[in-house]
Amino acid sequence: GIDCQGGSRMCCRQEFFVDFREIGWHDWIIQPEGYAMNFCTGQCPLHVAGMPGIAASFHTAVLNLLKANTATGTAGGGSCCVPTARRPLSLLYYDRDSNIVKTDIPDMVVEACGCS
Amino acid sequence: PRADSQCLACGEPALDLKSQRKLLLDLAKRSILDKLHLSHRPTLSRPVSRAALRTALQRLHGPPKGAHPEADNGQEYEIISFAETGLSNNQTRLDFRVSSDRTVGGMEVQQASLMFFVQLPPNTTWTLKVRVLVLGPRDANLTLATQHLLEVDASGWHQLFLGPEAQAACSQGHLTLELVPEGQVAQSSVILGGAAHRPFVVARVRVGGKHRVRRH
Question: In the predicted model, what is the mean pLDDT of residues B67-86?
């Protein structure tokens, strides 16, 4: 996948770090110190549908599909910039009874983006 | 981006950076609270000392091996609950509140164990009875559900795996244990005070997941 830089308009991953101290949550979340709430943004023109983050064969299949569709005059559906790889967020925190709780929240951190 | 620019993804007029940041921070808070099945951030009732936190974390294992919460969309938690202690006629009573914040989908306690610290005189063996007390279905009195007997022959931390009765009590959110010393060793051998030696229960909990789907 591609990380967003400057004014890139194509589909890319925008990093966004939430510091728990900045939002006043550091008193109940013991670890980690923040959460990388990365997100996907940018455009997916049809000629890159199925691009970065997804196997090239998928990209070829999509292009062939588009060629077939555009041949009959109907343009293929839109392609969206979506997460293609994610990882869990491990949290250690206090609950309302001051118990210490440890859990892994699956699929919370976006690692890569690509065009659907 | 400039105020008059467009959002890259949807073409709507872009937000100014300050509003965008506030929107993203609110989204991050909402996302974490939803995944923890919390309606709002917890307000701590009883602060935990750093010493107790450090001691307990040294005993908290990594995520259960082979646990695949996505497999049946349940989520695994490990919970450390520190005891509220009291003494009644030479018996030590430990009260634990394993809060049911995670009430969405119900809590299933898969394993629970008691960790306690003992300071014994040299060359002494101490027999300890641990009684599991539960609230009766209709009355507010505690009744004996089961008891464990264990021999302690060294000072330091000891772990006692608790059975299904204690796990069921934890699932209901409240567990009471009574430590009854056998023989002549004074009750004061079990160190209850002192921030770094507070007894605690470690519970391995699953919220949601396959069995709930079957039940529906």
Answer: 74
